[in-house]
């Protein structure tokens, strides 16, 4: 079972059978709701309801004393939000989150797409090697991936400092080098998704198109820009939005590799910040308010995505 | 597979270019695989070599000591089993529920269909970690804290939206003509669903399972927050954290535990690899 | 404004977030947990959380022995001990308070957390049992104070923790340096050692080692906070406190303890560095004695009280120590109190001292071990010279777990802020918490 055959299947299954048109859809009466019931029950109870509570808690004064029943809960209105927005740390964490997520997304996409194109230009053996290595990185749990990368860059025992001749340089001391270390790990474990997906997409492009471009003497970069990108646009949109979703929510890597947010909290991102506020300082309402802010940002990203989809006249 | 053959021809146009590309691919493969190699290597290194100021990329005297420390750790087998139970339950339940939901939103046209689809998309955006707070209280009120249920339920909820979104492409791919033919043959809707549609969509289900499996298997936040005092309900990541000590990290133990933790996912990946790649391809159609 | 379900519902329906929610969900905040115990079972599983120490092995042996004795005396009791990491104890213990059903019965806790845990409603009042316990009458008053809030007793003291200066006799002698007698000499000596032996930290310090830093603050006349009619105000940014902060942070850098490594270290890491022969001096506790003895520096070190400003004076040490308390939610109160008395009793404390160097909380036992083991002398002397503690405010636990002080030290040593700015910011954070906690 080689990745090559797998990919051919990949392309064949969905391509060979055209999606059914509008006429085929039936009015099923209650049937669709019956089919949806279990999903809606689970999501309603375990996703929507907690989100609702998250919003609710963010308007209350809710600290340890309230949780333990020592003091009554009181309604704070927007008090938690104004406390949050007047805290300069919040803004710097927000900025760090956005910049860090953007850097992660761009690096992941660049590495993933470049390697996908590379895969189409090599014979089976190197392709198999790279495919297997990528699957290995993909399969590695975030927590073990983080610890392994930490160990690789360990100032005392790691091989990276030896090879680079950096002595006992500590990668987690500086703000940017710590973020860089986390970024490398994030890219390492998330580029395989992009690579595999884009590779499958390229294989679905009719060979004649690429051949014609190559015969015209177009450079690889030009072929990518002018031929592949337009044809892969739906796929690229999906992997981009998926990467944004994942990278904006990075938690484990930061939490493990920078020991909960780095020196003096320099490597905090919103997700870890919310967790620390809630569970370390037991300011549950502030933590919830941060969670709501995150949710709204991601919601905005989704709306942009949907607009793009609709703008192109695609059907959901 | 004419397109593939043509593609090979296209590549053959520039031979030196291909050699450079192959060298590049091999270098990339080595770089990508290196962390995993180092993890396994360190797990097999004897204690003195792991924490050495001059680490070597090989070992002449492999040792099982680190693995022994991992496996003799209190209840390690139990942790492993718990992780399997959690990940397994999430995979099975989410595949089943997502299959039904995906069928509903692709094979039927009904009010609020688009709204629901958008909600499934939005639901993927929800930061799991931010919901730890309300989920903690919810699990407490349900009396699920300290039990595996407190890990299964949230992961089920978090894996569903992506699973439904991904399965949509597969259900769509099954021709409607097939359904009409089945109906003409007198097959009931339920029979069509389970005996015809389900087997056809199965590859997609497997691909989807990978994502649910990884999410549930990797989780350490919920395990850390919801399994409060009952160590018999702990999962693997907790066993890994034990090796982070206040005085000095036991890197040999950490690497061995990481290896043990990564292995099942890797096996799962290799087993479903073909379907995974096709699944990802199908999902983005 | 008190919250009713109706006001909350009204406020929320107006919000876009509520639009996300499916219809028909009841608007109620998570219920508060009822921490009072429902029963007092005389058999069953007792869950115990103890702290994981540097070289935890010997502690585990003593505890296992005490537990075995307890189980023998109480048929049907099954004791499960879990060792939890000190750094993340706050989250774990809070979670336990939040869910009585899964909380342990007995916990070890630092004496700085007593007030906070009592306010959180987590610890059981054991005043009556403590008064009736014959061994308790020998508890030294400071230790008893550390389990007492508002005149009620919330546990039994397990050991007294006090820190002093560990130093390498061979290194100082080899370089012809005298044992420092003042704080200035201490800093100068540390730098001299590091200059002569760059692979050694002169004095191992840590940016996250609050209790090692506090003596510098106090020796310079600084305070963490001042109390006025039960209300605390931070004093971390006072002139004297800043002098102490500046003195401590001057030890970070290439002249003594490189910030890249030391900014992240906590107390345990500095002691480990000393025990492994990577530091010429360290501020360690009596409870670290066993770990140092087990290290490579055995036989090559000595301990003196941490010097103060004036020659021959002692810098006020942090009066630390841990207690054992029963959780209010325990459904095995009688058994749990029994186990508490077993674990914090004279016999166990004597063994813990032998195994770990934990200083007993009973005056008679402490005098007895001091006669037997001369190494405790500098610690007892530090204690006698006047040890100090953190503010007895319920807010302290939160200040501690929000890492206000480590953040301040790390900001200074990594050059992000100067002493004045960092201490002012820390003072503001502390006052916010004090203001909320009352």
Automatic annotation (TrEMBL), chain A:
Location of this chain's protein in the cell: Cell membrane
Any Pfam family hit: BPD_transp_1
Keywords from the UniProt entry: Cell membrane, Membrane, Sugar transport, Transmembrane, Transmembrane helix, Transport
Residue stretches spanning the membrane: 33-52, 90-118, 130-153, 173-202, 223-245, 284-306
Membrane topology according to the record: Multi-pass membrane protein
Coiled-coil portions: none
UniProt protein name: Sugar transporter
Organism of provenance: Streptomyces violascens
UniProtKB/TrEMBL annotation, chain C:
Database matches in InterPro entries: SBP
Coiled-coil regions, chain positions: none
UniProt family annotation: Belongs to the bacterial solute-binding protein 1 family.
The protein's name: ABC transporter substrate-binding protein
Signal peptide: 1-26
Pfam families: SBP_bac_1
UniProt KW keywords: Signal, Transport
